[in-house]
Design a protein that fits this description.
- The structure holds two protein chains of two kinds.
- Chain A is an alpha/beta fold.
- Chain A is 52% helix and 12% strand.
- In chain A, the strands form five sheets. In chain A, strands 1, 2, 3, 4, 5, 6, 7, 8, 9 and 10 form a ten-stranded mixed sheet that branches. Chain A has a three-stranded antiparallel sheet with strand order 12-15-14. Chain A has a three-stranded antiparallel sheet with strand order 18-20-19.
- In chain B, the strands form five sheets. A seven-stranded antiparallel sheet of chain B has the order 18-15-17-16-20-21-19, sandwiched between helices. A five-stranded antiparallel sheet of chain B has the order 8-9-13-11-12. Chain B has a four-stranded mixed sheet with strand order 4-5-7-6, with helices on one face.
- By secondary structure, chain B is an alpha+beta fold.
- In chain B, 37% of the residues lie in helices and 18% in strands.
- Classes of the chains: A alpha/beta, B alpha+beta.
Chain lengths: 663, 631
């Protein structure tokens, strides 16, 4: 475009362009009304959204399912079909260009107020434009804020690229007017907790598959399933992933392009809301009124936002040698059958791969690094010390391959103080000392409330640290493994490394089956930064590497501590059988007690995300078993196994080599 | 049974039918058809040296190309003006100028008339390795009076089929392992003698019919150390009898398709079996590969047509004791023979069904706005079981290709009409010329029924947006079938190589398979360093109750490639993998040969392989029929 538009380049990586710059210079109205002629998928069979619904409803697959259900519960199939039509109506999108234009106009205004810049990588969009013409495309952004949903369609509209249809949660639909606007902007709505509703699954999956199969439009969904409240990548959900990939398994499309999209915020609009949610204060139900009340966020500065469109990933390439498509040769492809194990494993690996790619393309703000340091100094620290350590961390992060948005033309101290002022809701510098901000006391001022008030800020700060976690997590796991391993022998360390990966695989994203590569990567990064040396079969800490290793261990430490707290609680305090509803508040109050008594320093254990992750990990490790009783899920504790895991984590016993073959 | 009146009527129809065949096949028909003889081989022995007039002489080199497709006198070339023309007098296209072929050729392949890759002009006998002769075998063969030869030319002709790599090597004057000896039995008993001697002296026998194989079936296994004898069946070409009461004919298996059809037509009959190779392929070859004919909708495929088969194996002769139309006598032994690809013995005589020559024949064509709609129409036609004798659906690329082969029109009026039609279809009806596709049709039967049938099919087509596009388009489509093989030779003169391959697939996967295989070809070419986009096109050539036969054409310009044949083979391999992954079969009618052997096990299961192997082990324990096809 115009020469005046500035490009920003991150360490010779991608070129970013600020799309708001042009918006500030020219008319938003003419932007919204510009001619919009995206190049569609070459195999697209154009059809209206109602024709799409008809195709779904008349599909052989749904007919099979309806027949089956009718045979099972004796309901006439016409009734079930009506029900299916109702579900489809509730679900389906109604993408209309007019509403995209309306949204485009509104968002131009809103974004200009909220953000200083929206940086978008041009080449990524060019690649996307190419990919869309070739094969059906799945847009897979990470999910950190409600803004994600809007900003992508806005960018694509700006770049003359096909507007996607987007999987959204039903609560959004509940907002009367807004729900309809979203629907017409391409959103389709999915109920949470579909559970065992067979018909709902059938309608949803056929709807999604039909969109992919016919190349109706690019489809967008959040593989993490939810907005991450901790700003850390979530373990991917597999249902939707399977639906979008299945047309490839069955040969209904030649290939599918998965496009990981990494959205990074300097500052997240919902930061305090998210922290409250993690602490168990329920988030307000999405309503139009709620949205209007949220107007006060419009008066704040949220800095820069980066949207990086990653390289399209070919499902065909990924599936080479892993999926035998002939498995569908002997049954009708429309027949509802359980996916084979190799398909399930492939979907799982693919979902993890995409989240991993999202992480790799995140753009870190200086504040993320500062928050990482602050999280290791919760009692506050000298500005100079923070500045020095942040600079040190900056070099380490760059060495580990992080993409950092660190303005090169400004002195470092200025960069940091401007970051701090942007985040004055979290931390402030007073008399040369940086301290976390505490919320104004509102209630009784009891000690419990004090802990919670502090916890809100800590978790907010933690969430910015979490944005950088993926950069350090593999070396950090290695650092802890070297501490707990029985010897400095490579294989002993590797065994511990694998054990830690297994325990924390819900906490951090590790691609299944790539434990060996992760280990190699961690070794080579630590070697590169001079922290360890690898001689023959021994890995040892270098003379000058102790501080780096201590820092890395401290990254993982809050998680280790949090897990141990839950383990102890389950073994010593909890009743041997409990429900999920009981679990979270019980752990929370237990942790609170420990904190008040000074026996626990980590605030992470107060986060309901962490608590749930521990439970999932224990289930996976067969330390807890789940069973259904009277419509409720019950958990049963196996103390011996939990004790063993806890002891291994603490380095008191060595992990068995065979137990983590799954990684 | 047949009254005089009837038979004269039949004669008249036969004459008309002959004209039609001559029309789409041969320009003029000045050769004598093979005689119908009821006497057996012994009586023949006396006139062994008297000339038998059939289309295929013992010395094929007299009329056939040694390094390309078909007759020596018929070929495409670009004349001095840069216009394409087709030489010779045999075909309707012969002697005609094809004004748009050059542009299509250069545009499609990025080829240029400046960049030539001419073939070695003559077969140099010195480049052929000397024969490994089994003297004892020859000593015993001589007294039988069965003609044989070890001349280099005779041997080279029988060392190959028409796979790309085979023809490419010949054009470069490269010869691999070739048969050491060629024998020409003239009857069943001759074959019995040859097989006996082969067993006695442990020589390897490879039956040779029309030589049109595209599965490397005729290639001599390079690891074969015994003397290899090519058993050329071309002289066993008589119709031994016609049974008008049961409508069957008993025919020697070496007869080639056009001769069989012509001779039967003389008596007012036809088999109706018309594979695309029928000018050159033989009855025995059809049985040995499970051939399929274009008009199978009326007449059936070869397995539906045969009533009785006689085959000579190392264990002796296998045949059934009667000609009952269907039997429940255990697994049908015919099915060990059908598709045995020369691994078990030599098929010598076949009794097959014949039909009276149809009274009326009509071509037709339908234009569809898209391939998807075309396939939907074919599926509906199959569902209603009202497929005409032939119905084929070409994709857009083949439609364009068909247009490039339009001969120069003599009258301005025709081209004006063409223009009008094109305008009507693309402008008025809103068809996108880059998406539309065309189905060609052939109806046969009595006049009234044909017209009725035609209406039924066009009505169905209309439901899928199909528009009748005239008889000419249809007829040209079928004519192209016969000349398309000649076109490959033209391409090979200008850096373009290609081939066709086929599969069969259930209806619901036809579109997916077509799209994915075409796309795979394009992708693989790119990955393998092909500099120009390939021609990757398909057509649906047969419809069945439960699926269809799909034919792919694939060709590319290989300038800049070091080993084009290897690249070609890699791409074809990938395309076959894609076919199998999409629920397609290993082959619909080309057979397995050695080209597709590697996929046999997964295609028919381990037990299936074991069954076939145990039959082979029993019938031919010493691997006399050692072409190593199939297993």
């Amino acid at each position: 475009m115009e020469n005046s538009v500035q490009f920003m380049e991150l360490n010779g990586w991608e070129h970013f362009r600020d799309i708001l710059e042009e918006r500030r210079r020219s008319s938003d109205l003419s932007h919204a009304l510009r001619s919009f002629n995206p190049q569609p998928y070459k195999g697209m069979q154009p059809r209206s959204s109602s024709a799409l619904n008809r195709t779904v409803l008349e599909s052989q697959y749904l007919r099979y399912v309806i027949q089956q259900m009718s045979a099972e519960n004796g309901e006439p199939s016409e009734v079930i079909r009506e029900e299916a039509a109702g579900i489809l109506e509730e679900m389906s999108q109604n993408l209309q260009l007019g509403f995209i234009r309306f949204l485009g106009f509104t968002l131009s205004k809103v974004f200009k107020r909220l953000f200083r810049r929206i940086h978008v990588n041009d080449e990524g969009l060019q690649r996307l434009q190419q990919a869309i013409q070739e094969y059906p495309v799945v847009l897979m952004p990470n999910h950190r804020s409600y803004v994600d949903f809007l900003v992508l369609s806005y960018i694509l509209f700006t770049y003359d690229i096909s507007i996607p249809v987007i999987a959204a949660g039903i609560p959004l639909m509940g907002m009367k007017l807004v729900g309809e606007i979203f629907r017409r902007s391409g959103a389709f709505f999915i109920r949470r907790a579909i559970g065992a509703d067979k018909l709902y699954w059938a309608v949803l999956s056929e709807y999604v598959r039909t969109i992919v199969r016919t190349g109706y439009a690019p489809i967008e969904f959040y593989v993490e399933g939810l907005r991450s409240r901790s700003l850390k990548s979530l373990t991917p959900k597999l249902g939707m992933m399977h639906m979008v990939i299945e047309p490839f398994f069955k040969g209904e499309v030649y290939d599918i392009s998965l496009v990981p999209i990494s959205i990074s915020y300097d500052r997240v609009l919902e930061e305090s809301l998210l922290a409250h949610e993690l602490l168990g204060v329920p988030k307000p139900k999405e309503s139009t009124m709620g949205l209007l009340k949220a107007r006060k966020v419009l008066n704040e500065d949220y800095g820069t936002m980066h949207v990086c469109f990653g390289h399209p990933v070919s499902v065909r390439e990924l599936a080479k040698g892993k999926i035998d498509r002939r498995q569908y040769n002997l049954v009708p492809r429309d027949l509802p059958v359980r996916p084979s194990e190799d398909c399930q494993a492939f979907v799982n690996t693919t979902a993890h791969t995409i989240v991993h790619l999202q992480e790799e393309n995140m753009v870190l703000s200086p504040w993320s690094l500062m928050a990482t340091i602050l999280m290791q100094n919760l009692e506050g620290m000298d500005w100079d010390s923070l500045a020095r350590q942040t600079q040190w961390l900056k070099e380490l992060a760059l060495g580990f391959g992080a993409h950092l948005d660190w303005p090169g033309h400004m002195p470092c101290s200025e960069v940091m103080s401007s970051s701090l002022s942007l985040h004055r809701s979290v931390a402030r510098c007073e008399a040369g000392r940086v301290l976390l901000v505490e919320e104004e006391p509102q209630g009784t001022g009891s000690p419990e409330e004090g802990v919670f008030r502090k916890a809100v800020t800590v978790l907010m700060c933690a969430s910015y640290r979490n944005q950088a976690l993926h950069v350090f997590v593999r070396p950090a796991v290695l650092a802890v493994a070297m501490r707990t391993a029985a010897s400095s022998r490579r294989e002993d360390i590797f065994t511990c490394f694998r054990f830690l990966q297994e325990v924390f695989s819900n906490e951090f994203i590790f691609i299944p089956g790539r434990g060996g590569e992760d280990f190699e990567e961690a070794c080579s990064l630590l070697k590169k930064c001079g922290a360890v040396q690898i001689m023959d079969q021994d890995i040892t800490v270098m003379e000058g590497g102790h501080s780096t290793m201590a820092f890395l261990r401290a990254i993982l430490e809050p998680y280790v501590e949090a897990y141990q707290v839950v383990f102890r609680y389950l073994c010593d305090e909890s009743s041997p059988v409990f429900t999920e509803k009981e679990f979270v508040p019980a752990v929370r109050s237990h942790a609170l007690k420990l904190m008040l008594s000074g026996a626990l320093e980590s605030y992470d254990v107060l986060s309901s995300d962490t608590q749930k992750n521990v439970l999932t990990a224990l289930l996976r490790l067969d330390a807890v078993t789940k069973s259904r009783r009277a419509e409720k899920m019950e958990f049963r504790v196996n103390k011996a196994v939990i004790n063993r895991i806890g002891d291994t984590l603490a380095g008191r016993i060595t992990p068995p080599t065979a137990s983590h073959s799954r990684l | 049974m047949a009254s005089n009146c009837n038979s004269s009527e039949r004669q008249r129809i036969a004459q008309q039918r002959l004209k039609i065949i001559a029309g789409h096949l041969q320009k003029d028909d000045d050769r004598e058809p093979p005689r119908i003889l009821a006497n057996d081989c012994k009586a023949e022995a006396s006139d062994r040296n008297s000339s038998r007039t059939s289309t295929m002489p013992k010395r094929r080199q007299e009329i056939m190309k040694w390094n390309g497709w078909g007759y020596s006198d018929s070929r495409f070339l670009f004349n001095k003006k840069g216009q394409a023309e087709f030489t010779g007098k045999r075909y309707r296209l012969s002697g005609m100028i094809l004004p748009s072929l050059k542009d299509w050729f250069e545009g499609t392949f990025g080829a240029s008339l400046q960049h030539k890759t001419p073939a070695t002009p003559v077969l140099n006998s010195r480049d052929v390795q000397p024969p490994t002769l089994n003297e004892a075998f020859i000593q015993d063969l001589k007294p039988t009076g069965i003609p044989f030869s070890h001349e280099a030319e005779d041997r080279v002709f029988r060392a190959h089929g028409h796979c790309l790599h085979e023809i490419f090597a010949l054009r470069e004057g490269r010869f691999g392992r070739v048969p050491d000896l060629v024998v020409w039995p003239s009857c069943h008993n001759d074959v019995v003698k040859i097989v006996e001697l082969a067993c006695k002296h442990n020589v390897c026998l490879i039956p040779y019919g029309g030589g049109t194989s595209v599965s490397s079936a005729l290639e001599c296994p390079p690891e074969e150390t015994r003397s290899i004898v090519s058993l050329d069946t071309s002289q066993m070409n008589r119709i031994l009898w016609i049974d008008e009461k049961n409508l069957t004919a008993h025919v020697e298996a070496g007869i080639i398709g056009q001769d069989l059809e012509r001779a039967l037509n003389e008596s007012g009959y036809c088999t109706g079996h018309e594979p695309d190779s029928m000018e050159f392929s033989s009855l025995g070859g059809w049985v040995a590969t499970r051939a399929s004919g274009m008009k199978k909708n009326i007449y059936g495929n070869i397995e539906d047509l045969v009533v009785h088969i006689k085959m000579v194996t190392p264990r002796g002769v296998i045949e059934k004791s009667c000609q009952g139309p269907r039997m429940s006598t255990g697994p049908d032994i015919h099915h060990f023979i059908l598709g045995s690809e020369g691994t078990l013995g030599v098929i010598t005589e076949v009794t097959m069904k014949i039909r009276p020559v149809p009274e009326y024949q009509k071509y037709g064509s339908v234009v569809f706005p898209s391939f998807e709609q075309g396939v939907a129409c074919l599926r509906e036609v199959a569902k209603q079981r009202c497929a005409p004798a032939s119905i084929r659906l070409m994709d857009n690329a083949q439609f364009q290709f068909g247009h490039a082969l339009k001969p120069q029109v003599s009258s301005i009026f025709t081209s004006f009409l063409d223009g009008l039609k094109k305008f009507y279809i693309t402008k008025f009806k809103g068809f996108d010329p880059h998406r539309l596709c065309v189905a060609t049709l052939l109806f046969e039967g009595d006049r009234e029924r044909v017209l009725q049938h035609e209406k039924q099919v066009y009505d169905i087509a209309a439901k899928f947006g199909g528009l009748a596009a005239g008889e000419d388009n249809g007829q040209r489509g079928y004519m192209l079938t016969f000349v398309i093989a000649y076109l490959r030779d033209l391409g090979m003169d200008y850096y373009v190589i290609g081939e066709s391959f086929e599969t069969s697939v259930p209806w619901d996967r036809v579109l997916d398979l077509c799209r994915n295989v075409k796309e795979r070809i394009v992708r693989e070419c790119k990955e393998k360093g092909v500099q120009f986009p390939p021609l990757s096109t398909c057509r649906v050539t047969q419809t069945y109750d439960a699926g269809a036969c799909v034919y792919f054409y694939f060709a590319f310009n290989y300038r800049g490639l070091g080993d084009p044949v290897h690249v070609y083979e890699q791409v074809e391999h990938a395309a076959r993998e894609e076919i199998l992954a999409n629920g397609g079969s290993l082959s619909h009618h080309h057979g397995v040969g050695k080209l597709r052997k590697q996929w046999m096990q997964e295609s028919i299961s381990n037990v299936g392989m074991g069954m076939l192997k145990s039959v082979k082990d029993y019938v031919d324990p010493d691997n006399i029929f050692g072409n190593r096809n199939l297993l």
